[in-house]
Amino acid sequence: MSTISVHQDQTSVRTLPAGVEPAQFDRFLALVAEALPTERILTSEADLRQFRDPYAFETWTEFTASAAVLPTSTEEVQAVVRAANEHRIPLFTHGQGRNNGYGGPAPRVTGSVVISLREMNRILEINDELAYAVVEPGVKWFDLHEALEAGGHPLFASITDLGWGSVIGNSMDNGITYGPNSQDFGAPCGMEVVLADGSLLRTGMGAMEDNPTWHLYKRGLGPALDPLFIQSNFGIVTRMGYWLTPKPEVVHPFFVTAEKEEALGPLMETLRRLRLDGTVQGIPSFRNTLLLASVITRRSEWSDSDAPLDDATIDRIAQETGIGRWSGRGGLWGDRVVVEHNYAKVKAAFEQIPGVTVTGEPIPFDQIGSREHYYERILGGVPSMDIHNVVGWYGGSENGGHLSFSPVIALTSENAVESNRFLRDLVEREAGLDYQVAMFSVSARVMVNVVMMIFDASDEAQTRRAHDAVKLMVREAGKRGMGEYRAHLDFMDLASDQFAFGDHAYRRFVEKIKDAVDPNGILAPGRHGIWPEAMRPDRSQA
Amino acid sequence: MSTISVHQDQTSVRTLPAGVEPAQFDRFLALVAEALPTERILTSEADLRQFRDPYAFETWTEFTASAAVLPTSTEEVQAVVRAANEHRIPLFTHGQGRNNGYGGPAPRVTGSVVISLREMNRILEINDELAYAVVEPGVKWFDLHEALEAGGHPLFASITDLGWGSVIGNSMDNGITYGPNSQDFGAPCGMEVVLADGSLLRTGMGAMEDNPTWHLYKRGLGPALDPLFIQSNFGIVTRMGYWLTPKPEVVHPFFVTAEKEEALGPLMETLRRLRLDGTVQGIPSFRNTLLLASVITRRSEWSDSDAPLDDATIDRIAQETGIGRWSGRGGLWGDRVVVEHNYAKVKAAFEQIPGVTVTGEPIPFDQIGSREHYYERILGGVPSMDIHNVVGWYGGSENGGHLSFSPVIALTSENAVESNRFLRDLVEREAGLDYQVAMFSVSARVMVNVVMMIFDASDEAQTRRAHDAVKLMVREAGKRGMGEYRAHLDFMDLASDQFAFGDHAYRRFVEKIKDAVDPNGILAPGRHGIWPEAMRPDRSQA
């Protein structure tokens, strides 16, 4: 993978994948052009810019595409995959490619052809009786919400923070949503998948023709394959069921504010108990002062120093903004009497911790869309872009960038405090950046600590320092038994290296599957550290 | 697979697997004997009888083993697998092998060596803080409950009807349990697996050494493999996490009795609504008159006729036993005030249906173990063997046998009524047996209809008729888009044949995985229709 051939033609300078000859690439494009109109085959540098890591500099040549195609149907995806399989062209797929902290829509392998599914955006079904939708990969949270509202459906979706993302794309990376069925990735069910030879697979009960339980039952006869297509490169999901929830009587958001840093341990203990006994559902989360401050203020309002903000300054921000040192939020859904009982439990439990206040009120479901706070709307399935502002802490909204480092932590006081100390120390010491973290309780037993490495994306040195610091964090966290739930393109291999039990038994097993189901290695090579045989890196140093 | 060589030595007549020479088999046994004491290597006909399909006749030669081994540690399992891989001996594994309706502990391929994990029965961990246990495959529901009680743990397990089964074994086949985290197979998390070459794999976060979230987080970095080892033959699970639930204030069983057959549709509509809005958790279930009558009476008490009982007789049984035509049951767990609110909803909703009565009362959790009704105890995690009596309808407790046919049905009135009519007709017409069914709402959106084909297992003709009828049902159900959640050894292939979308794309995909991860095809060949290349049947007629 060290040689990259650059191919110049009339319209563009192309970065072809290593080992691919220009003529071979042209034959591939010619085959694609038989299936897709030319305006949905992009090869110019200008057109391809939108498919780069949004925070990469012009001169960074990694993770750039040779072309992008925008199919609008499963048949077109199949045609592209067949052409790539015939001509040995590496592909990389996204739904909307909006998760910028992990590389956005950019491909892992330089010179890959990006299959952008942004225009494959039909909602194929909304079933009121059985409470599910079937979507294509280009369907955004905004689209799904609009369709539910426009059709007057008595249902809402569990959604994520930013409405511009893809329902399928988020699910394909174990992304977080907040609704009642978000816990343990509960909403996706039943997939249609284009395999490496261009053929179609349906998972679960969908493997039987006309079986109405395809999107209703999480298993099938034989092993369930849905999870195998998540965070992998064994197929391209072109259709998926997504479970919805009947609109409840009320939604009850709750907001937890802790004045003191040392509340973290007791907060996590309390949260776990409320999760395990079923009082709190969905995915509640906690953020530290500087992450939430980043949504509503700019760093320059608080300090002129480049050094990471000290505790005295953070305390000042915590007090003046009212954010506190830790800010938690979650939701309760259901009948008013049940929700009020559970809210009283939540409030009493958290307020036993010194300096902690819990607020919130029950909201009749039909009023949720007109609430001022975006988080309250999100709990009711109403998407927004409000928190996108978070990235502007250093660089302002024009130049804000971020990387995410996201280890999974056991939900205990001890683990929370120790991992937080360790992560903060690394961010401040190695990257020289402020420590900004959001902790998501994706199940009753763990939290995912998303460390948002926010930087000024116009400052190349700072951007590189953020990359380097995260790489160090991946290694250091790995030594302490902390694994990432998801990794940026730039350290997918490194993150995967940390899962070394049994001489990397897990990776050797999934790479056996990779070679069996994609023998030419064309589907997203390298995604989450899974490489096809011909491109497998020398890991003797890992 | 048509030739079976029978090898006679001093102690036994062995049915060796097709293509395996006696000397080859002896070399395998000699290698196993280096790792296991001889008393845990069984080869005599008498010793092997316990590993047959419990309802097979002596003269039926299919599904019989050549030997059985009883390892007590993962290392011993590895040694057996390595020996089998070296000498190309097919294996078949069970935990306790107690699900008699699907073949019990018997192997799919005649002459296989059974790995019985019954004596690998340690509970490796019970974690009070994070509410999970880690068990070996021989751990029974009885064992887990006893350990929780003996240790004074504040937790209980979601369990199944019969306490003699294995926690892992049940999970490996998508078996049903009833507790709060049973829905959508929520309890298992994190596995250790012996692969076909004898090496060890740890799934999820366990793929990282010393990662404390192995049994806490349902995914990992890269594709999640737990579901891939369920209903497959890609590895032998020797360790698994199982999530537990903190003991709630009260358990509130509810019992639904419907006088009339035609209540079925409205019952299922009501159940779905109560499931989708979160009122009812766990796995509620409904049984018809004759299935429940079979637990407490014998057929001879009601009729002398061999013909399937007619509706007049069923009505009489329904009334005299008090069972009704449909009997539903479920549980609510939590704070008394919430549970009482939800129970009132359940009662009001079901009792809107003519002829339906709902009963039940809240039980403080510490009193659940002393309740008379086994189902109430089961809701509190206290196992029993009470319903094993169900199989004696025709043959009495000595000679009772059963086969299960278990399609997954969308949870709507129309699907429930139509599938019930269709299944009853086939059972009565083709098998000449009474129609006995239990319907389990394993998610809010489906039920699994377990048709219990109960027969007199001392009557060979009736037993064969039951097998033949189920085979017909598998085919006919398949034509109507109804797929089984699990199949008996005798029709695993037939059940798998029904999943034919894309020229059997699903099976071709999983068989590619099979060949990649078990190239010698030694692990449970044929399990759920997945065959290794060398043994793959001619499916041109399928």
Largest sheet of chain A: 9 strands, antiparallel
Shape of chain A: globular
Biggest interface goes to: A-B, 99 and 99 residues
Mean pLDDT across the residues of chain A is 95
Number of helices of chain A: 15
Overall description:
The structure is a homodimer of 542-residue chains. The first copy, chain A, has helices at residues 22-35, 45-48, 74-87, 141-150, 167-172, 264-276, 289-296, 311-321, 336-351, 374-379, 392-399, 413-431, 460-479, 492-497, 501-517; strands at residues 6-8, 13-15, 41-42, 65-69, 91-94, 112-116, 123-127, 132-135, 155-156, 188-194, 200-202, 236-243, 245-246, 250-258, 285-288, 326-334, 356-359, 363-364, 400-405, 408-410, 437-440, 446-456. Chain A is globular, with a radius of gyration of 23 Å. Residues 1-12 of chain A have low confidence and may be disordered. The first copy, chain A, contains 15 helices and 22 strands. In chain A, helix 6 crosses helix 12 (413-431) and helix 12 packs antiparallel against helix 13 (460-479). Chain A has 542 residues and is an alpha+beta fold. Helix content of chain A is 32%, strand content 19%. In chain A, the strands form 5 sheets. In chain A, strands 14, 15, 16, 17, 18, 19, 20, 21 and 22 form a 9-stranded antiparallel beta sheet that branches. A 5-stranded antiparallel beta sheet of chain A has the order 7-8-12-10-11. A 4-stranded mixed beta sheet of chain A has the order 3-4-6-5. The interface between A and B is large, with 99 and 99 residues.
